[in-house]
Amino acid sequence: MTRRKQMEKLELDAESSHLEGLIGYNLKRAYVIVQTDFRRVLGDDGFSPRAYSALSLVAQFPNITQTGLSKMLGIERSGLVAIIDDLEGRELVQRTTVAGDRRAQALLPTPKGIKALAEATATVRAHENTLFADFSQEDRATLIELLQRIRGLGEDK
Amino acid sequence: MTRRKQMEKLELDAESSHLEGLIGYNLKRAYVIVQTDFRRVLGDDGFSPRAYSALSLVAQFPNITQTGLSKMLGIERSGLVAIIDDLEGRELVQRTTVAGDRRAQALLPTPKGIKALAEATATVRAHENTLFADFSQEDRATLIELLQRIRGLGEDK
DNA sequence: TATTGTTATACTCTATAACTATA
DNA sequence: TATAGTTATAGAGTATAACAATA
Q: From the CA of B6, how many Å to the C1' of C17?
């Protein structure tokens, strides 16, 4: 038996592994695939997944505070600082003062940020459309619905 | 409008965000939920997701080499060293010589490793059964099937 | 007292490159 | 020349704790 045949057999057997029956394991492996493709396509524009998500939400919710954004992203306030520092350094987002609360920093997209977001969004959509070309619209809708139900499980705590 | 109402409105609007329509974004957020629960439940036994996966595959494919295992896990050979070091240090896995190739390290589970794996597997299954209590068997099967199709997309490259 | 943004710090996960011993 | 395991190193990503300014 050749080495190649041996590897194929190993991979075939893996399909029946109990590991293959775990949702967590499959989620992780699937996410790595999508994330790798995202970075390949958007890395040139300097957008990591989290930078894109942050800019996207700032554009959608102008004047959101950093604490509000960190909650939406599901990360700590402290972790958001570097993300916003980066976006502000590239003049895509602006920190502004909040009337009535001098502690808070409200976030606004710059015109340059809006333009960069539009371009990145077109690229992201193309990336997913290409990657998921074999998935029907129903497949995609079912997948997103199931994933959002999982996300909802985290809100009970 | 109260602060709480404002937050609720923000979260409601987020549902219709184009970010919410991205598979990658939902995959990431869903994975964080499941991984966090995995660590909460199995952290006490000293099993990270990757350590559990590695031990599980060593038990399923005894005498697999480190390179073979790293390919099955989708990580680099170099990254596997610390994982096996840890499992070997806890006497759950043994590195053994391969007849006919003195470069390779074949991996075998120890009796202690088999026992620990059995216990961890029971815990992992309980964790997923509890977390996904609201998901029907059909939901779970559909989800795993879709995720495995995504994983298959990564093999074309 | 509590909250916002920030800094310092550390830990996990992962990748790349180079080394060694074999093949 | 190529491969298996290893080491050194670095870079994301994230969390916790503490701090100053403000509420």
A: 51
